[in-house]
Amino acid sequence: MAINPHNRGPLRTISMLVLLIVGLYGLLGAVSTWGTAQRSPKLGLDLSGGTQLILTPKLVTPGQKINQGEVTKAVDIIRARVNGSGVTEAEVSTQGAGDIVVSLPGVVDNATKESLQKASQLRMRAVLVESSAAPIPVPTSTGTATSKPTAPATTAPKATGTTTTAPKSGFPPALSAATTAPTATATIAPAPVATPTAVAPTATPTTGAKPKNASDPAWVTPQLQAAFDAFKCTSNPKIYENIVDDPNKPMVTCSSDGRLKFILGPAEVNGDQIANATSDQQQNSGGPTGVYEVLLNFNSAGTTAFCNVTSRLVSLPSPRNEFGIVLDNQVISYPVAQASLCAGTASITGSFTAASAKALADQLKFGALPMSFTLQTEDQISPTLGGDQLTRGLLAGGIGLLLVVAYSLFQYRALGFVTISSLLIAALLTYGLVTMFGWSQNYRLTMAGVTGLIVSIGIVADSFILYFERVRDEVRDGRALRAAVETGWGRARRTILISDGVNFLAASVLYLLAASNVRGFAFTLMLTTIVDIIVVFLFTHPLLSILSNTEFFGQGHKWSGLDPKRLGARTVTYAGRGRVTIAARRAAAEGNQS
Amino acid sequence: MSTFAEFGNDLYTGKRSIDFVGRQKTWYTVSLILLALAAAGLFGRGLNIGLEFRGGSEFQVASVTNFNNFEARAKAAVGTVNPGSNVVVTKAAVGNTVRVQTEKFQSTTLSDNVKSALAREFNVNPNTISANIIGPSWGASVSQQAITALIWFLILVSLVLAAYFRTWKMSIAALIALAHDLVITVGIYALAGFEVTPASVIGFLTILGYSLYDTVVVFDKVRENTQEAIGNGRLSFSQAANQAVNQTLVRSINTSVVALLPVASILFIGYFLLGPGTLLDLSLALFVGIAVGTYSSIFIATPVLADLREREPAMKELKKRAFRYQGAKARRESADSSGGDEGGVDGSAERDVARVSSGGGASATARPIHPYVQAGPRNQPKRPPKSKR
Questions:
Q1: Nearest to B19, CA basis, from B290, B215, B306, B226
Q2: Please, what is the angle between helix B198-232 and helix B278-296, to 10°?
């Protein structure tokens, strides 16, 4: 069948749209068959049931400002905590100025809630007494030193070169000057000059003696010794929660792997004095060595404190030259001070793998977060209520769609079918896109999002009305339908673009600044504005162009909605200079002006 | 519906014209009264601030079967756990849901106890009760963000509009209409005593987009018409703008109706089936806002724009030109009609015919004819009189 040459352009445009839709759904089918996507949009908590907690940071010092970096850290900490409590599919995100939104399926018990609000404290304390925890055989420091990390060693043949700066003992890890940091070299503090205070009294502790410094065994009172002996390291995190973490007193705790228990001196460096912590391979002149290390950067207060501690520890006998890093009452690392480090940087080396080095670096970095959280709002939605909401939301959408369809049929007769088919195409595109975003961006459709979708039915239909009314205006001016469609489109296009632009602007400002539960609303508004433009340009206009070539529309059938007679375009006259006009219109316009 | 289509035709051709721009004082007065009412509502009655702004706890007990005396029972149930607390109990219209609002509890255990007390009282599973604990700063931070969003939006949109229309006066007129919509909508909330929740705040913000949408559509046509008018000098700015409003009136009505229909259906479902919540709050704000936005784009935005532009010297010049043209034409036409016989000039389409038919002596007297023309055809050389030849 021969194609009307007038229809070739529009058909090409429509085929682009078909390609777009087929591509979208093809991709969706592919990722849902072979990937992790699901075939329907992901539902938010209010539709599927669950609990949403909004946490606000509670600052230690009043008047302190929260910066974005701290909030990002807080999100990471909380995500780790939620995942640690065994909840799958939990979502943690930020909202607005510093609130953190935690969404969990199901009901959350109070213990989880409290653990989420807890502050995270990182402190560094000198080791006073170290002993192995009872049930586990003692890995002596020499015994584990032989267990060299195999994977990095094979990739980096120069591993032996680095052993001079960091003895290959992985256990306990060595604390030395950061070799990669340009501000510090290992030679910067070669002399382990014992400070006068570091001459630790070796005498047995007497209860009356006042400890001279943080490493003084005088801290270990019989009471503390008894508590130490009674303390059992278990993997149960509960026991660590009960430990009183007073920075001015010694404490008893275990290493996080439960193998060693410690009596630690008072806190000397706090987490917030660590400016940054990163993990990397050690570098030497030949490039990365394959030995992983954790690099620490201190702020100025931290630099001084750390300098004092390392200068004192470096000359002390074995367990007391170790330095316990305590995160939430557990010792996560206990490196030996190998030099006095006063440059504000340090590196911890040992038997790290890439992953364990990164984990420790993260812990050190996140430990520097001086805030706990208050539970601001808690929203629990039972699954039945959520399901009800969804059904009713869809019902509202259905009714809205039906009303719009009825109205456009009423107003535009057969043209109404163009509206309906365009709305259906828009719905198809939107469904696909929402599902796609659910997969790629983890976007979840909430009740607010559904509202946005329903509201946007009106917005999308509005642009069709703009277009149709423009075409009608042109028909009233006496143009033949095909010409009217083209000139009308030329003018309507601009109006559609600017009005959609304003809508998009409004929606994106809402999205960027609004609270989470309304973000879904703004997002769907944004999405449908774009879908609207796609549909009008790639579907409605080409379709109308094709239809204008048919007899039914082109000749202005009574039911086509473009009947020149009904639109008042009665007589066409030649107005000179290549223009046509309608006598009646012109006369009326002139009569109006007088 | 043929009458509506004809109405549209008449508006387009100008056969029927509503003087939107010329009678701006009337509309301004109406709006001023509305604004005064809104302000009275805002400052007199005040807004009915939702739980989210005050802080507190809300429990929704779903699928309740026995509604007898539910208010007292709910209060008693809460009273057993936390005596003397201020409890508001409402019933969602159809959803078999009882909504219990209390002040904020000190601990989460307390709210759990309330939950189980309510579950016992209404004989439902505690897990089906939705609990919602809201800190007072929550609503405040939402409104804080809303204000930031509002300011950003206003700045961006006035830049975009000024760039698109190439005149900042259109931006100003659109923003005035916007402020008008916002104040009236909030005023309606205060007067009707609707509860203001964060969702309605967001609804108010969405109105901004809608109100502008309508205004932009009208302004686009205003720009088109006024450019033509500036070109040919036949209409003053106000007249051209008024014509534009009339020509887009049908479009404005249609777009507003189509935008309102889905919102109305949400409102309907929200009110009768879902009960209070995000959906109802959003759609109520939108419904009121879209209606007011349509009004302002027709009655406020364009007259304000016309008032602003008419002050420009160029527009004053245009007005003079247009009045000169129109006056001249009116004189011409009155001359025509006085010359023609009454029946002939009725149908305006036949005016040309009428002029030809009436081109006798009457028309010659009505219009002074240059003596040169009276002398006869001028393309022929004047022959000397016979006597001189």
A1: B306
A2: 20
Identify the closest residue of chain A to B249 by CA–CA distance: A469
Measured between CA atoms, the residue of chain A closest to residue B132 is: A379
The yes/no answer on whether domain A50-119+373-379 falls in CATH 1.10.357.10 is no
Identify the CATH number of the domain defined by range B2-49+138-316. Answer: 1.20.1640.10
Beta carbons of B220 and A110 less than 8 Å apart: no
Q: Which pair of structure tokens corresponds to residue A248?
A: 């001015």
Percentage, residues of chain A above pLDDT 70: 68
Range with the poorest average pLDDT among B79-83, B120-124, B156-160? B79-83
How many angstroms from the chain centroid is the CA of residue B81?
50
Q: Which residues 300-329 of B are in CB contact (within 8 Å) with A?
A: 326, 329
Mean pLDDT of all residues in B363-367: 50
CB A385 to CB B62 under 8 A?
Answer: yes
How close does chain A come to B269, measured CA to CA in Å? 6
- Place domain B56-134 in its CATH homologous superfamily: ACT domain (3.30.70.260)
pLDDT tens-digit map of A80-132: 666 655 555 567 777 666 677 777 766 666 766 776 666 666 778 888 887 77
- The secondary structure of A475-519 as a DSSP string is HHTT--HHHHHHHHHHHHHHHHHHHHHHHHHHHHHHHHHS-HHHH
Q: With 90 as the cut, is the pLDDT of residue A538 above it?
A: yes
The correct CATH number of A122-368 out of 3.40.640.10, 3.20.70.20, 3.40.630.30, 3.30.1360.200 is: 3.30.1360.200
So where are chain A's domains? Answer: 8-43+382-563, 50-119+373-379, 122-368
C-beta atoms of B269 and A587 within 8 A:
no
Chain A residues inside the 8 Å CB shell of B247: 473
